[in-house]
Design brief:
Elements (H helix, E strand, L loop, with lengths): L1 E5 L4 H17 L2 E8 L13 H20 L7 E8 L2 H11 L4 E5 L5 H4 L4 E4 L2 E6 L6 E3 L1 H10 L2 E8 L9 H24 L4 E7 L2 H11 L4 E6 L5 H12 L8 E5 L1 E2 L7
Parallel strand pairs: 1-2, 1-4, 2-3, 4-5, 6-8, 6-10, 8-9, 10-11
Antiparallel strand pairs: 7-12
């Protein structure tokens, strides 16, 4: 995996680089950290000619901070810094294209990169979209999801999916039961996340799961779609994950599967 990280010394950028380091070390690959100095910001400072010099000294300081962070992984992955003059968003997109990057990590001030890049973009802090349905009611441990949310300082959107297309007009009672169970599941997961200090938002959608997932991803400007893995994952969620993963042109954000631990009987109907 080749990752590009847009780094400007801010807290968000430091978290983005730390998260990228962790991910690349897990999977193997290469990290290219881009430090772009935007001279255009100083065109109106003619009366104070030393302002740019001061800014460049600050830039040198945060570039050294990036080097220090990258030393943590130098024995595990290839990592280096690229320094350029230019607009950070444009330079990030350009570098990702020239390097044929697999993924980009950016602080939220550069989230516009997500709409223009040709590869998935992780925005930090961001929003994690977690699709679930009534069959997700057995999950009791969300260690990996919590870890992802904490590492990216993200809010979690819990999307409850009701496959209305699977039921005909004579099966309304069953569909209503599925709707209620899905709502209970979403609220229970939100409670589990809250106990671990993770903020969440809840929404319920009826329709084809892959289509609803992509709609919510667009509406909520999510930075990552996370599918929970477990023993009782429904065929509809499995199919949706396959469709979305196989057709990367439909989504500009990373799609991850995380392992959740399961226990029969939790929230049983």
């Amino acid at each position: 995996m080749k990752a590009i990280v847009a780094y400007d010394g801010t807290l968000d950028a430091k978290d983005a680089l730390k998260y990228a380091i962790r991910k690349v070390c897990e999977k193997g690959g290469e990290i290219v950290t881009l430090c772009a100095f935007d001279r255009d910001l100083f065109v109106t400072y003619d009366a104070v000619p030393r302002v740019e010099d001061v800014a460049r000294r600050d830039a040198e300081r945060y570039i050294e901070e990036a080097r220090s962070l990258l030393r943590q992984c130098r024995d595990m992955v290839k990592a280096y810094i690229v320094e350029v003059d230019g607009n950070p968003e444009r330079e990030t997109i350009s570098l990702a294209k020239s390097e044929n990057a697999d993924i980009i990590f950016v602080p939220r001030r550069y989230r516009a990169v997500q709409k223009k890049a040709k590869c998935p973009v992780v925005v930090i802090p961001g929003t994690l979209l977690v699709p679930v349905d009534h069959t997700t009611s057995d999950v009791v441990n969300l260690d990996q999801l919590i870890q992802e949310a904490q590492a990216t300082r993200s809010t979690v959107v819990l999307l409850g999916l009701v496959p209305e297309h699977l039921y005909n007009s004579t099966e309304r009672a069953e569909l209503d039961r599925i709707m209620v169970q899905t709502q209970v599941t979403v609220k229970s997961l939100a409670s589990l996340l809250a106990k671990n200090g993770i903020k969440s938002q809840e929404t319920i959608r009826s329709g084809y799961p892959d289509e609803e997932i992509l709609r919510v991803a667009e509406d909520r400007a999510v930075s990552m779609i996370v599918f929970l893995k477990g023993n009782h994952k429904s065929a509809e969620l499995t199919k949706a994950e396959t469709i979305i993963t196989d057709d990367s042109a439909k989504v500009r954000v990373p799609v991850f599967s995380v392992l959740a631990r399961w226990q029969p009987g939790f929230l049983s109907s």
